[in-house]
Amino acid sequence: MAEALGVHIVKEKPKREEHLLPPLPNVQKYSRVHVRFAPNPDSVIHLGNTRAALLSDEYAKMYRGVFILRFEDTSPSVKPPMPEAYEVIREDLRWLGVNWHEEYIQSERLPIYYEYAEKLISMGSAYVCTCRPEQFREMVIAKRPCPCRDLPLEIQIKRWEGMLDGTIKKGGAVLRIKTDLTHPNPAIRDWPAMRIDTKPHPLQGKKYRVWPLYNFACGIDDHLMGITHILRGKEHEVNTQRQLYLYKYLGWEYPEAIHYGRLKIEGAILSKSKIRQGIDSGIYKDWSDPRLGTIAALRKRGFLPETIRRLILEVGVKPSEAMISWDNLEAINRKLLDPITKRLIFVPDPVPLQIIGLPKEFVAQIPLHPDHPEWGNITHKVTPSLNTIMVSSKDLSSFKQGTIFRLMNLFNVKLLDSSICAFLSESVAEIKSLGAPIIQWLPKDAGTQLSVIMPDAKVTEGLVDTNILNETLPNTFQFYRFGFVKVYREDSGLVGYYSHD
RNA sequence: GCUCCGGUAGUAUAGUCCGGUCAAGUAUACUGGCCUCUCGAGCCAGUGACACGGGUUCAAAUCCCGUCCGGAGCACCA
């Protein structure tokens, strides 16, 4: 109808229109887009890894494609898989809102890799190399074939069997894919595909002693799983070049590979090895230590999955490196959190303050959200006999004797000495015209102990409005004049993790 | 050193393919002001960038060359 009238109806604009992802290349070549996220379960995932996962997920949704989760756990001794990591990673992905349609674990697919290894050997496209690594390197730099390269097929097969049956010891041989020995990049010349690793695998035990290297397993799997578009960091650019040879020999077409630059976040640790090292040495409590850039840490601190997704989409797929600032991340999170988060009183480092000269009983109405009066208020009473309240020592110590200030939502007082003040008046307007400070407070017995872990892992102790115990926890609150805090109920009591202002 | 890949404000990003509408947009940060019983949110205004040098062109952030700077890779890791 509208079209008949020559009117073009614009559908509801996407919320993030300014950060829509660019289209994927050559989508029309494939019947259905297949993307994958292939983490190594040797550790948990962090903001950097999330980039591949979220970008792939977003594209899968954009094209109604298939998202494949593949655990790349084929290095028992160099990157030993952490048994619990498989589930922790799934958990993190679910939390991030990533939907995967298929899941594979490479350590369960060794027979497939063996099959292709044998095929490539018999085709003369791969050979078993028994040179010492340094020896091989010398030759390859000189663009000369190593002595193993052109050995007859029967010997290659015999050597391959030797790798499998244990005749050849660990480190004694490696399967190499033939490439171009004159390739300008020495790293590409006759790259290794399989090696012997006798360390028991957490999932497979001692079942296998020959394991595929990254390029072999990944290259084969990407094809077998029908991957059409690969999103990965640019550290893999050379790997793409290597795998091209494999695809050529097997007559396969290589997927579209998109390489993005590294993601760093100012001040936070994003290196898996450094994280693990820090945990082992006790510097960090665990993977969710607030100083880390892990998903577990961001979640614990109250960052929302949507925040992380928006950030990743904003950064996009550029090949250059990006240094994310906390300001940006926090601003996104604050914008999402602010309208939906209850306000409560938290008094850091509390000290008592007695109020004298009270003419009557006062009831303070503290809104749960200033922009949502319908959410209601929390009330606190101060009477001539119940006249001691708790305030932050930081506030109190900044006031000189005689300072006039307001107790938020209550009344105005004048400081007499370090722990006594006198009732002055009730009017808000009065205090505003003076430009005097307004501070948060709690009646002496209305607070519950709360330890807030700050982003630098230091702890701020304080009292939080006891009404928090009526809330479902964990939950994020905004404490007046303090900031957003995600509060947990732990055995030791209430523990909060500071998100941001 | 070798092989690749990049460089738009403090940070991130749009624009670069298909030169003019870009005296460069947006977000955040910062500075002023308004609003607010939070040092939160919101509103208004402002500061701030095309790495440098050549070339092509009537015209260059956009194309070409050089320089500088940055990153990645050069594992029997992924």
Question: How would you sum up this structure, described in words?
Answer:
Helix 6 (214-224) packs across helix 7. 28% of the residues lie in helices and 26% in strands. Residues 1-19 have low confidence and may be disordered. It is of the alpha/beta class. The chain has 13 helices and 27 strands. Among the domains are: 350-443, Ribosomal Protein L25, Chain P; 446-500, Ribosomal Protein L25, Chain P. The protein binds one RNA strand of 78 nucleotides through helix 4, strand 6, helix 6, helix 7 and helix 10.
How would you write the strand order of the largest sheet?
12-25-26-27-23-24-13
The CATH topology of the domain at 350-443 is what?
Answer: Ribosomal Protein L25, Chain P
> Which residues form runs of ≥5 with pLDDT under 50?
1-19
Q: Give the radius of gyration.
A: 31 Å
The percentage of residues in β strands lies in 25-35%
Secondary structure tally, helices = 13
Please state the structural category.
alpha/beta
Helix content: 25-40%
Characterize the quaternary organization of these chains. Answer: single chain
TL;DR?
The protein is an alpha/beta fold. It is built from 13 helices and 27 strands.
